[in-house]
Design a protein that fits this description.
Length: 161
């Protein structure tokens, strides 16, 4: 239940059998932009159609703040969808380190308290590090929404270009 994986996940292992849901999360931050972008892309072991979300927020203090916000939002969305068994994946090694050793990241204590509280809603939870190439869908969602001129949030109704 309390699994946080520090080791790099081999992309090939993502193709193996799994139960519950896989949720890929990413944040996109650029110092000159008005917004940060956050995105998630979720697949189900039962063959349900994928779900996804993208939102832009007032630009965060740093890229790492944006990554934490992306994870927290994805967790909230999974809780709201009543998905209790979720393996989350990120390409941000500092995010994995942060949730593994929260006391070493005092500047993020408010986020980490929220993380701990939300994590208790899951019957199965993990956060694993993957390569950027394995996180393309969440990355694209976060990057595209970051550059929108107005505040936007999409869940499962993301317009096609």
């Amino acid at each position: 239940m309390d699994l946080v994986t520090r080791s790099r996940v081999r992309d090939a292992s993502l193709e193996s059998n799994y139960s519950g849901y896989r949720c890929f999360v990413d944040g996109s931050w650029k110092g000159s932009d008005k917004f940060s972008g956050i995105g998630w892309y979720c697949t189900s072991s039962s063959g349900e159609p994928p779900t996804m979300g993208a939102a832009n927020l007032r630009r965060s203090q740093s890229p790492l703040h944006t990554e934490v916000e992306a994870l927290l939002w994805a967790m909230k969305c999974m809780i709201g969808a009543d998905n209790p068994e979720v393996a989350f994946y990120t390409d941000c090694s500092d995010l994995v380190k942060m949730v593994s050793s929260p006391t070493e990241w005092p500047a993020f204590s408010v986020y980490l308290e929220k993380f701990q509280s939300d994590k208790e809603e899951f019957s199965t939870f993990s956060l694993s590090l993957i390569s950027r190439s394995a996180n393309v869908k969440a990355d694209n969602l976060a990057q595209k929404i970051r550059t929108e001129p107005l505040h936007i949030t999409y869940v499962n109704n993301i317009p096609q270009e």
